[in-house]
Amino acid sequence: MKERITMSAMAKVLGLSSSTISRALKGDRRIGEETRLRVCETAARLGYQPNPMISALMSVRKKRGGDEVGTVALVTDYHGLGGWRSKDVCLWEYEGICRRANELGYRVEEFAMSDYGYDGARLERALTTRGIRGVLLGFSRERESRAEWNIAGFTVAGLSTYFREVPVDRANFHGFFNVQLALEEMRALGYRRTGLVVPEFNNRISGFLWSGGALDWQNRLCESDRCAPFIPEAGNEECQFKDWLKRENPDSLLVYKLPVKTWLAKSGLRIPEDIGLAHL
Length: 280
Hints:
Blueprint: H1 7-14, H2 18-25, H3 33-46, H4 52-64, E1 70-77, H5 88-103, E2 106-112, H6 120-130, E3 134-140, E4 155-159, E5 170-171, H7 175-188, E6 194-197, H8 200-205, H9 209-219, H10 237-248, E7 252-255, H11 260-266, E8 276-279
Parallel strand pairs: 1-2, 1-3, 3-4, 4-5, 6-7, 7-8
């Protein structure tokens, strides 16, 4: 599928800011005619098309008054308001969300499902009352409850696989590419049998992109260099790891979250003298 050309990409090509690109495409007279023409010609050449989701949000904003700063609701379900802030990766994503929203003239406000009794209808009423139409389904934990609410009146996007019960377009780290990039770097360092070591829960949250990337990588290696991933379910992971280590005999590990350093130390293996280790 052809990759969508963004305003940020055009900004890099032309050496301009994203806001200048946006204004030029709208015919804003504050942007010089020469620059406007250059931007429009580049957009046509690269096949730029406006993002329909952003266009819908901007349309709503204009109806309320062009100078008003609109709000995008970040809906979370992570042990109450702000519980996700204890995780670095969530903070990185949040900073990026806020930065991009500010570039487009919006602010981000969190709406924790726990504040609405995990009742989707209550949240829907609150957003409607506030005149908020843009929603980002953000950080949540694996949970038994499901937020049933009508998204028809909103422009909604999802982050990762959070709120997986809601059928919307989603943005996520490219786990498949990240794993293969890491494996390529480790092979360039001289390692030949690198094993992926990640918890089953986190691999599932990635949309199985981590294991998919690792298995595709292994499939392209000669058989002597192949090492099956270690993806344990919760419970007795250390014993399972020792059995896997003996069976697969990796010379290096690509790890997420699991306490592999401790397990290796107990087995008398030193890093990096006996085995290489990289964190995903």
